[in-house]
Amino acid sequence: MNRYPVWKYAIIVIALLLGVVYTLPNFFGEAPAVQVSSGKATIKVDTGTLQKVEDALKAAGVNAQSVALEGGSIRARFDSTDNQLKAKDAVQKALIPDAADPQFVVALNLVSRSPDWLTALHASPMYLGLDLRGGVHFMLQVDMQAALTQRVESITGDLRSLLREKDIRHGGISRNGQTVEIRLRDAQQLEAAKRLISAQLADLQTQDVAEGAEFRMVVSVKPEAARRVQEQALKQNITTLHNRINELGVAEPVIQQQGLDRIVVQLPGVQDTAKAKDILGRTATLEVRMVDESTEARAAEQPGGIVPFGTERYLEREGRPLIVKKQVVLTGDNLTDAQPGFDNQTQEPVVNLTLDAKGARIFKDVTRENVGKRMAILLFEKGKGEVVTAPVIRSEIGGGRVQISGRMTTAEANDTALLLRAGSLAAPMEIIEERTIGPSLGAENIAKGFNSVTWGFLVIVAFMCIYYAMFGLFSGIALGVNLLFLVAILSMLQATLTLPGMAAMALALGMAIDSNVLINERVREELRNGVSPQAAIHAGYDRAWATIFDSNITTLIAGVALLAFGSGPVRGFAVVHCIGILTSMFSAVFFSRGLVNLWYGGKKKLKSVSIGTVWRPEGGSAVKAD
């Protein structure tokens, strides 16, 4: 009756092994490290950079526990903070010869001390949030009206081009706030303009205003299109912030939308507020120029060469100099989209650009006049410009769609598209809230949270053992397994643990034990009714399950609501809360029943169970069930 088949015990054993493996990294702590990442959008951290870092550490006599290229950055681990600081100075001198123009960011960081075999299994510790590790918190207000105004400004240029192409005569086009006014000479031209706008620009709406013999049409963006513009601006800013914050070497930055027009940025481990502000406020602009391919320009590319008048020297990605003309053909303001793709004929990776009407017209004229010549696309950051790519113009390019190619890998095409699309902010932002949390306060929060979970667990287990005897011990073991599974799942998900998350852990322990209390009391009730111990155990688990399921589902619904509609600390609490409910249902019912079956299931003539004192409902004498 009370026996599990072998496959159920196999599930329990496998779950326990996985729980132990993915919980272990949280006990190894963190090692001081130096992280090297790209300081510019066009600079790549590769194996060559890794060799320079290793050579710099060797020359400085600093022994690193490990130096590895991880993702897009290099991390060197050390046994002490003294070696970490020495290594940072040595690496900075080797990689950043010109402090005014840093190509790399060398940052102090902390990385897990987990052994290689755990890392190979992708077992990593949970990230610590701002309140546990310390760092800086910013609340940014996005100027949505500026984003809409910028869109209307672009529409103004598009309308001029469309009316000119269709030979619709007008008395002038001007932007008035977030609307565009078009003066037309007669009703026929007015109707032609309305039909054109309706067919070509579906996001716009028009309104006629008669002024004597002249007709005036007011063009505005439809409300649903305006919302899309503002949502896109917010997403663009979040993407751009992610790009910029990579420079700081933050282990797990939090960049998320709050409300309709605000962005929360949390940088755990960062104490330099000025540096963080500099990164967040960084500007990047895009320019398209023609390459000077004259003999003088080729000579100027050599060391010591004199740059011809009207040109400038910039570096390509590979470090080769390139002479480009000062005249700017297009800017990033004319670019509406950039997406990676593949050439239809050669299947080589390319970047597909989309220009607005003004940019398309200019690009068509320039490409027609410069077939066979090179065109350079430059990205300017902090006043320094670098060549992203310099393709050859094969033919006249019209329609506002441009394809950039030239021996790029798929990764380079993705990176280039991202740079061109998210090189600058889509709308201005202002810091409206700023907080700094010191590491000492974070350590204090960790200690308090750890103590609350530990003492809560010990008191609950002690009470259960006293009140329910052996069944209380089973409940305590199941509660420990629940905590093991909870930490393991959070680690597997690479969740960020915050102080509200630790509070949710403590709450999850208290709620998880409710299921065992229901089971134990149900078993006691069956024993009071004179049922045999084996039958009482079976009935106790079966009949308590419906109540446990209902109570946990209703609590889970509340947790999901917090997760869906909450933000910041509330979401952190909700994540741990929901996962804790799911793990408690497994451990309190499935796992604890496995323990009970293992202990009592093999006894055919079981006369009593250790579940504390069973009181008769009539108020008679007590019966010892153990």
TrEMBL record:
InterPro entries: SecD (IPR005791), SecD-TM (IPR027398), SecD/SecF_arch_bac (IPR022813), SecD/SecF_CS (IPR022646), SecD_1st (IPR048631), SecD_SecF_C (IPR048634), SecD_SecF_C_bact (IPR055344), SecDF_P1_head (IPR054384)
Cellular location(s): Cell membrane
Occurrences of domain Protein export membrane protein SecD/SecF C-terminal (ranges): 428-599
Coiled-coil region list: none
Start and end residues of each SecD export protein N-terminal TM domain: 1-107
Membrane topology: Multi-pass membrane protein
Gene3D superfamilies named in the record: 3.30.1360.200, 3.30.70.3400, Multidrug efflux transporter AcrB transmembrane domain (1.20.1640.10)
Subunit description: Forms a complex with SecF. Part of the essential Sec protein translocation apparatus which comprises SecA, SecYEG and auxiliary proteins SecDF-YajC and YidC.
Family assignment from sequence similarity: Belongs to the SecD/SecF family. SecD subfamily.
Protein name per UniProt: Protein translocase subunit SecD
Originating organism: Limnohabitans lacus
Source lineage: Bacteria, Pseudomonadati, Pseudomonadota, Betaproteobacteria, Burkholderiales
